[in-house]
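For the sake of clarity, the format in which proteins appear in this thesis is described at this point. Each number in the token line that follows is a code from a learned vocabulary of backbone shapes. One such record is shown here in full, so that the layout can be seen directly:
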Amino acid sequence: MELGVHFRLTDDEARRVLDAAGEDERLHEVIGELEAVDEVWARACETDKAWDPIACALAPEGDDGEWPARGVIGGARALQEDDEECWVTHLDPAECAEVAGYLATLDDGAFADAYRRMPPELRNPEFGDDEEAYALAMLAGLRGFFASAAAERQHVVFTVWG
């Protein structure tokens, strides 16, 4: 499994990513260029491999999951062309605010309950107490990340490359 990263982006930075939507090679290039900018990387939130159990616990129905829970990882829209190559999602500033509000009300116990109710077909081989604790630690970082994105009216782009 590959590593996930959330980026908080300005309007201009997000426009570059959105302009490359549907062109995976170009999308990868643009995100790589942004990732190399110290100021952009300083605003990023690495979710490592925890993005998967977080997504599967909060939105087991994927794109059909409840909003704004599915927005934490799945964003509001996918930008990639090939789902096997990468997963790149986007949230605009208003959507970020909705996700931030959701995360502010999602306590660790509610996440733990959602994690334990995850459908068996979505569970990783690592499913259990250690993976749950790992996902909770990364979720804590996402709470502050989304709160900052909402306060600063920024876009969020999530990326994971295969």
